[in-house]
Design goal:
The protein has about 450 residues and is of the alpha+beta class. It is about 35% helix and about 20% strand. The longest helix is centred in the middle third of the chain and has 21 residues.
Length: about 450
């Protein structure tokens, strides 16, 4: 047993921890868990803890039901919202079959496999997310906002300042550093920016952040949601991802004297995201509702372009801090906060690496919002659109060898099947819009 495991065992004893929750995610990114007692902890580290994988949609068939959860001791944290109970801690798990093979349906393992691919090329993948979400009075079908605040408001209009403050305290207690937080542009919409770190740690942190936001909201008798577009006439919630590759301690995206300060590695990564953008969208935007956000008239990207100072671009290159080449990064703006971060990071990384290895050429920067271009102008510039709905995104994904390789056969096929079912259900639904628009006149 290693030092990390010893540290966990010692902490559990010294802090009087009564239960340890073992966390993992299903294919769609729902957080799952079961609890063990301290007496079972050494066995969990040595052998893993058995659970029924067939009981979790998308995991395994009945004949493959037995799964083992192996807790990752580096993710041990005491849950700060369980103070009224006996001590409860959590650890994320890696999942294996009974013979010790990594389980192909484990999203965390999928990301680890893609990160190993990057490591073979000498890269470490870093991510810094801007997490947007809404607070509502309850979870009912008619969203009731808490305020009429706007972007960066710090006034009585922003009644949720205390909720954000409590959430940040909870995240920092869980070892998740927060860079900043503020009210977003829409009423009752908020943003928390997490400090960049390696992609696996960040995927774990995003899963924890979604739960922490919801737990703190529940403590205050309100509801928090990461639904991409809960209110029709205002901006939706995005998950803007600031991305960089490092070679050791050196930012591989920076090159002094290069155009825009971007290295060939950075240019190839951006070109890969643009080239494979339609293929990976079903993973970065996996819900029917995701595509209600990806429309013109708001800050969400619609056209597959890149730029330095253009919020409408799919890929934006923020200006690095003066004298800090290590801050060179790109911002991928289409994902939403309801995605599975393990899978989203996997396909984004795969697209970027394909651009680097394939020496993809970076197209011209598009400084203006392409929504204002004519169809002929967009065609001349080679500008294409992000998929307009989930079905279109799934069609692009299904024909993508890159996404199939990044996700693996098991997860790729299950994801497509599940999402086709979701689209079929949506197609059968008669919306309020249709009733209001057509019932009186047809």
């Amino acid at each position: 047993m290693g030092k990390q495991e010893d540290y966990v065992l010692r902490n559990v004893e010294e802090r009087g921890i009564r239960f340890i929750r073992l966390w993992f995610t299903d294919v769609l990114g729902y957080l799952k868990s079961f609890a063990i007692t301290p007496a079972e902890l050494e066995t969990a580290f040595d052998e893993g803890m058995q659970f029924d994988g067939s009981a979790i949609d998308g995991f395994s068939r009945v004949q493959e039901a037995d799964m083992l959860a192996h807790p990752d001791p580096t993710t041990f944290q005491i849950l700060p919202w369980r103070r009224d109970e006996s001590g409860v801690a959590r650890m994320f798990c890696d999942l294996t079959t009974p013979d010790g093979e990594p389980f192909e349906g484990d999203p965390r393992w999928v990301l680890q496999r893609n990160l190993e691919r990057a490591a073979e090329l000498g890269f470490t993948f870093y991510v810094g997310p801007e997490v947007e979400y809404f607070y509502f009075e309850d979870s009912g079908p008619e969203p009731k906002t808490l305020d009429q605040g706007g972007y960066f408001d710090l006034t009585p209009l922003d009644v949720a300042q205390e909720y954000r403050r409590r959430t940040i305290m909870a995240l920092e207690a869980l070892g998740i550093p927060v860079e900043s937080s503020h009210h977003e542009v829409a009423p009752s919409q908020h943003e928390i920016d997490l400090r960049y770190t390696d992609a696996l740690t960040m995927a774990d942190a995003l899963m924890t952040t979604r739960l922490a936001v919801k737990e703190v909201a529940m403590e205050h008798g309100i509801h928090a949601t990461f639904m991409p577009k809960p209110i029709e006439a205002v901006d939706g919630s995005g998950l803007h991802l600031h991305l960089s590759l490092f070679e050791g301690d050196t930012n591989a995206f920076h090159e002094t004297g290069a155009e825009y300060g971007l290295s060939k590695v950075a240019q190839g990564f951006i070109a890969g995201l643009l080239h494979h953008g339609t293929e990976i969208t079903a993973v970065t935007n996996q819900w029917v509702n995701s595509y209600k956000r990806l429309v013109s008239g708001y800050d969400a990207p619609v056209w597959i372009t890149w730029a330095r100072n253009n919020q409408s671009a799919l890929v934006r290159v923020p200006t690095p801090k003066k004298g800090k080449p290590g801050s060179t990064r790109i911002e991928y703006r289409s994902p939403d906060p309801a995605c599975n971060p393990y899978l989203a990071f996997s396909v984004i990384l795969a697209a970027g690496l394909a651009g680097i290895e394939g020496n993809y050429q970076l197209p011209d920067e598009v400084r203006l919002d392409a929504s204002g271009f004519s169809r002929q102008q967009r065609a001349a510039a080679g500008i294409t659109r992000i998929p307009g709905n989930l079905a279109s995104a799934l069609d692009s994904m299904e024909s993508s060898e890159l996404v199939a390789t990044a996700l693996g056969e098991h997860l790729f096929e299950w994801f497509l099947r599940n999402k086709r079912n979701e689209w079929d259900q949506y197609q059968r639904h008669v919306s309020r819009y249709e009733l209001e628009q057509y019932l009186p006149i047809l």
